[in-house]
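User: Hey, my collaborator sent me this sequence without any context and asked if I could get a structure. I don't really work with proteins. Can you help?
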Amino acid sequence: MAPIISAQGLSKRYGVAPLFQNIPFTVSEGDRTGLIGPNGSGKSTLLEILCERIKPDSGNVAMRKRTRFSYVQQISEFTPGETIRSAIESALEEAAVPDGERQSRIAETLGRAGFTDLETHTAALSGGWRKRLAICAGLVQAPDVLLLDEPTNHLDLAGIEWLETVLQDAAFACIVVSHDRYFLENVASEVVELNRIYEDGYLHVQGNYSRFLEAKEEYLHAQGQRQDALANRVHTEMEWLRRGPKARATKAKARIDKAHGMISELAALNARTQTSTAKIDFSATSRQTKRLIELTGVTYTIGNRTLFEDIDFAITSGMRVGLVGPNGGGKTTLLRLLGGDIQPTAGEIRRADSLRIVSFDQNCEIDPDLTLRRALAPDSDSVIYQEQVIHVASWAARFLFASEDLNQPVGRLSGGERARVLIARLVLQPADVLLLDEPTNDLDIPTLEILEESLLEYRGALVLVTHDRYMLDRVSTVVLGLNGLGETERFADFAQWNDWQGSREMKGTPNVASRDQRSKTLRARASASIFGTLAPNSRRPRGPLIVSTNGGLNWKRKRAKPFEGWHDRASLATSGLDPGVPLPNCAWRLGPNLHATKWLFCCPFPITVRPGKALTGTS
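Assistant: No problem. I've predicted the 3D structure and written it out in C-alpha cell form, which is a compact way to encode the shape of the chain:
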C-alpha cells in the first residue's frame, strides 16, 4: 500500500544531547501506530515534525499530495468564551469543510462522543470532557492522518473505551503517543519505541503491544548475548595487547587495529545499554492502628445534584482502594473529603488520631520559571528523606535528572518529567494514607512500572484514582465504584465493576454513562481486543486464567465460581475448558500464546480456562 507519509533520516536536538538521530518513519492507510518511549525521548517532537509544525535538524518528510492532518495536543486548550459548538465550528473552518457538510459532522461526531448541550462553555468542562472535545475537533476535520499526543490523559474509563472504538473503526491512519498499556493493546496495529538502548535508536514492531513486548525481549536478549561475546573477545585481545606485540608485521598491525575497534564498539554498546530507572519509595509511618478512616452515611451534594449518598466504608492499614467512575462522578470530591479539605453534606468521617494523610493532586501546578533545583529542594540544597539528609543532585538523580538539569526552568521539562518532580516532592512526606489523583498522567511505561511496584510495597493505606486500567488491575485490592447519580458500590476488582456497569445498561438502568454523557460502553467493550499478555516483568502464570469483558486477562490464584444457565448458548472445543464451565453467547478465539482477538458479542460473565491451552469457538 502506498505510504501517506515517508520520512527518512530524521534528527532533532535541543541543547547538547540529541533527542533522536536518523529515524525513518512511514505511515500508510489504515495504520494505527503506537509511539512510545521514555520521557524526553522526542515523541511529541516527532509528531510535530511529521505534521510539519517544526523542522528537523536533518532528514526529510515526503507526503502524499492533499494529505489532511489533525493534531490533538497533549494539553487541551480553547479560546476563552468558546462553547462546545463554536470550538467545533472553528475546527471545521480551519479545515475548510464545505458549509453543507458542517451540521451533519457536528451532530454525528458530538453525538457519538456523548455531548448533549452544545452551548456549554468549554471553561465549564472537566479535564476529561475537554479532552473529548479536543479529539472531536480533530475528528470533524475528516483527516487522512490523526495525530494524538497522550489522548487518554484525563479521560475517564468510559471515555477511553469510546476512543478505542473510534480508532478501531476508523478509515483514517493514526499515530498515538500513549503510555496506557491496555489502550495500546486494544488499538495499535504497530508499535514504535524511541529509545537509545536500540542500535538504530528505535524499534519498530508490527502487531499490538503484547507482540511488541515479545519482540523487544528477543532483541534485548540477542543484544545481551552479543555484548557478552564481545566482552569476552575484548578481554582476550586486551591480554594480547598487554604483551606488547610489535606492529611491524601486517597481520599484527591489522589485529591491533581490530582490537581497538572492538574496544570502541563494546564501550558504545555498554553506554547505550546502561539504563537508569526512577527510585520511587513511599514512606509509611510506624503506626499500628488498623482502622484509619471510617465513613458512615456520607453524602455529598453540589447544588441539586447528589454525587454520592449514604456511603458506609472503612479504610484500614494495607488496603489499596481504586476509585472508578465517570468524569464528574465525584472521585476527586471523595478524595478531598477523605483528606479533610471539604466537609460532607451529611454523614460522618472519623479519622484515627494524628493521622498523616499525603495527597497527590492531578491539577497541581509548578511555577514554570522555578528552577528544577528549587522545585525539588525549595529551602536549601538538600532534602530530608527517611531521616537522612540527601543533596539535591543525588535526589534529582533518583528521579532520572542529571546534575546539569538542576538550573534549567521547570517550564522546559516534558510533561512526564514534571510528573516525576511532583512525585519526588510527594515521597518526602511519610504517610499513613496516600490519596493519589491521576498520578500516572504523562509518566512513561518504565516509570509506571516502578510506581506500581512502590505502591504494592507501601505498607500504609492507599486510595487511587487513575484511568490506567492496568495499574488498577495490578494495584487495587478493592474497587469503589461511583456512578455520579448517588449510587456507590464496592467491588473485588475493576473487571467486576465493568461487568456491573454493563449489566445495568442491558437492564436499562439509568446512569451517567447511558443517560447524558457516555458513549455506548457495551459497543466499545464488545469491539475491544482482550489484553492477552502478562506484566512485562512476569515469567510464568500461576492459577487459572480469568477472561472478562473489560478487555483484560487476569491471572488469579483462586478459581472462579461456576456459572449456570448458559450450557446451550455456545459451542466450543472442550480441550481448553475446565470441566463443567459453560460459555456465554459470544464468538471468540484465544491463540496458543493467550493473545485474543475481538469479542463479537458482549459477555456479561467471566470464563475460567486452563492456562496454556489454545481455545477456539463460535456462538
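In plain terms: The longest strand covers residues 291-302. You can pass these C-alpha cells on to your collaborator as they are.
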